[in-house]
Amino acid sequence: MQAGHEQAADSPLIHFSVIRLEAFDHSDRRMWSAAILAGGRARRLGGRDKAALHVGPSAILERQLAILRTIVDRILIVANDDARYAGYGVPVVRDAVRGAGALGGLYTAIRATGTPRTLVIACDLPFLTSAFLSRLIADGHDVDVVLPRTSDGFQPLCATYSDRAGVKLGLEIEAGVRKVIDAVRGAEGLVIRELGPDDLAPYDRHGALFFNVNTPDDYARAIDVEARLGSSSVVGSPEPDA
């Protein structure tokens, strides 16, 4: 993509950018929303719904909603199966861009919330805490993206994004980019704040913060981790984990 290129007025991405969820109260205090990405096919889990997998007494999605409700007033789920998530009490939005994978889901989330900034998380992260997600939001008020970076690499599906970032990611999609981190880091002019391993350490004393469930072995390990950590992993305290 060349710098300075703008989308044509008839672009479907531009049309989607005006979508707003009427159920949301846009006068809310923080001007933040949260979105859970639940549109993946979970091939390595035999097509099982990751979000519905129980880790401890609650499903992963239920754990995440419990955390997010302590942080923001508006939450949505991005998924291609409305009925599957209809009972969770939050709006469900279908992917706006077919064939763009997780990047399309991320773009959809940012553009659909209708708020200046959005906290986005993947549905397969059972051990996120309110303390850490609150840190992401606190660091996201004056930048386009707050992007965690662990020793394993960047974590763009547990990050915050401005509405401007959504526009830029749309341009990356139209340019043919499909890998999330390539789009985020390659988008023209985005101001990105990285949280590196030292920043993350106070929130991840047990090494489980970014543990994600992709395979049956991962799911078995998640159950073991939950048994070790107990219910304190469900909703974090206002301070970093002790």
Architecture blueprint of SSEs:
Layout: H1 12-16, E1 32-37, E2 54-55, E3 58-59, H2 60-68, E4 75-78, E5 92-93, H3 101-113, E6 117-122, H4 130-138, E7 145-150, E8 153-154, E9 158-162, H5 163-174, H6 180-186, E10 192-195, H7 197-200, H8 216-229
Parallel strand pairs: 1-4, 1-6, 4-5, 7-10
Antiparallel strand pairs: 2-3, 6-9, 7-8, 7-9
Can you characterise this structure?
The chain is an alpha/beta fold and about 240 residues long. The protein has one domain: Spore Coat Polysaccharide Biosynthesis Protein SpsA, Chain A. The chain contains eight helices and ten strands. Strands 1, 4, 5, 6, 7, 8, 9 and 10 form an eight-stranded mixed beta sheet that branches. Strands 2-3 form a two-stranded antiparallel ribbon. A hairpin with a 2-residue loop joins strand 7 and strand 8. The longest helix is centred in the C-terminal third of the chain and has 14 residues. The radius of gyration is 17 Å and the shape is globular. The N terminus and C terminus are likely disordered.
In short:
With 242 residues, the chain is α/β, with parallel strands linked by helices. It has helices at residues 12-16, 60-68, 101-113, 130-138, 163-174, 180-186, 197-200, 216-229; strands at residues 32-37, 54-55, 58-59, 75-78, 92-93, 117-122, 145-150, 153-154, 158-162, 192-195. Strands 1, 4, 5, 6, 7, 8, 9 and 10 form an eight-stranded mixed sheet that branches.
